[in-house]
Amino acid sequence: TVHTIAPDTHVQKAATLMIDNRIHHLVVMEEERIVGIVSSMDFVNLVATERLK
């Protein structure tokens, strides 16, 4: 199963989807096009960056 999210999906919802499904990547879709991929490493970087501020 490929799990997808919209570009405007809230970070919390995306993280919860990844945790609940034990996955490390989400495909970002806009209409019928792939516009990006979010990885668990993106969340690690986000947390690390926020802690450095």
Give a verbal description of the structure.
It contains two helices and three strands; from the N terminus they run E-H-E-E-H. By secondary structure, the chain is α+β, with helices and mostly antiparallel strands. It has a single domain (4-52), classed as CBS-domain (Roll), CATH 3.10.580.10. A three-stranded mixed β-sheet has the order 1-2-3. The protein is globular, with a radius of gyration of 12 Å.
Outline of this structure?
With 53 residues, the chain is of the alpha+beta class. It contains two helices and three strands, in the order βαββα.
SSE blueprint:
Blueprint: E1 4-5, H1 11-21, E2 25-30, E3 33-39, H2 40-52
Parallel strand pairs: 1-2
Antiparallel strand pairs: 2-3
Instruction: Catalogue the unreliable spans.
Output: none
CATH topology (fold) name: CBS-domain
Helix count?
2
Strand order of the largest sheet: 1-2-3
Compute the number of strand runs.
3
Sheet/helix structural class:
alpha+beta
Strand content: 25-35%
- Radius of gyration, Cα only, in angstroms? 12 Å
What value does the average pLDDT take? 95
